[in-house]
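writing this on my phone so excuse typos. first protein, seq and then structure
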Amino acid sequence: MTEPDAWPSRFHVAPAKVTAYLLNPNHRDGAAKCRFLAAFGFTPGNPDVMIGALLDHGQRPNFRGFLPGYRATKLDFEGPLAARAGVDPQVRTVWQVDDTDPSRTARFITLKPLPRPRP
């Protein structure tokens, strides 16, 4: 994306990013995220629910800004992640559009839980 304010043409979540990382309790870096997400009803047995929630999260109301990256533009989103357990956790998701990608597809990179707001 040559212009930082050009919105991606589409968003994509690689299934392996969900099954091998986010919802994998044995992954070195993803296990803590798996435990966090499991508390809200996301399970390794149904990765499509997680993919759908991620795609829904990458919408304009949650958009916080563009971040420059190495040969890419990153998009930062913060807000509730639609969950199955009744309470929607607040998360940050990061997506990336590679400069050399003519389709301008934003690929899901990672998710991070946000601190709970103080009452």
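second protein below, same order as before
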Amino acid sequence: MKVAHVFIRMPVGGAEDLVGDILRTVPEGVDMRIVCLQELGKVGESLQQQFPDHVKLLPWVPGKRFRLGAVMKLARWLREEGIQVVHTHVYNAHVYGLLAARRAGIPAVLHHHKTYAEMRWRRKIILRALSHRAAAHLTLSAQTREDLCRVFGIPPERVRVFINPVDEDTFHPAANREQLRRSLDLSADTALVGTVASLTPPKNHLLNVSMTARLNELGFTGRFLAFGEGGERTRIAEAVSQQKLANFNLMGARRPIAPWMQSLDVFTLGSTWEGQPMVLLQALACELPIAASNIEGNAAVLGPDHPALFDVNDADAYANTVWRVLNDETFRATILAHQKRRKSELPMLRDYTKELVEFYQTILTSARH
């Protein structure tokens, strides 16, 4: 079986990490390709180094303007390579991948990693028109499935829920955190609070800045580490400067990210909206106590009764929660016990990949009939 995952680019992100994990664990007999239509991006570059025959840059979409020629070229490439299923993950890739797959006469699967509450109306119209031409849809949760069916009018039987897995060979507790911190040039005895999130508005980094300022007032002497890149870097840096926060550090998009996460004392995610955030799943696998905004995507992963969910608009509540995680051993133990139960309910990566391949087989069988 030959499957192509189509992206415009592969920056650091949950969908990109998921596809990388799938590529690393795909069973024998499945030829999986990853195609980027504009640039590889940080994750794409890393995967191409590891799997040069399976990651390809086809730079047919140089800008934001839609290119019909790129659809035609991609369709031709799909036919020439003998691709049997196209799998896409983000809006622009949905458009190019689905149209090219239709042109090539092969089924396309659209994988929806976010809800559509904040999608621009033009995109909703386009995606609604295209979505009925997909062979099937994948979502991360029952709630996202319900949202997809409601917004685009897709019959529920055409939408399958696949809960994201985590590669526990990569994400696990540090064997020796003190030694790990030394290897990363981090202080062994400094409290480290951190997040992994792109520097974009939905990730709400200005709340992290306000929270750190309040945390310092409570007596925090450690560091807040923000891992990620994006268009909000300058704005966030200016807010950090205005607050005079010497202990708020923009760390950039570090790869691999697992060792940096393993070094933290508390992991946080203050986003205003999420689909099913991979970083929370990864933090669970690393057995880090988590403090997160009480929004649908975060609560879906952690459970609505997670002890350290806070109001997404309340920096004081956020800071008080993190302070308590750092200083109240009973509270910290309660969080970790809760998360251990949640972690046990998550799928294993190899089981996920096997189930996904079986899903492709059902798509192909339906297409033949």
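The chain has two domains: 2-165+348-368, 177-344. thats all i got for now
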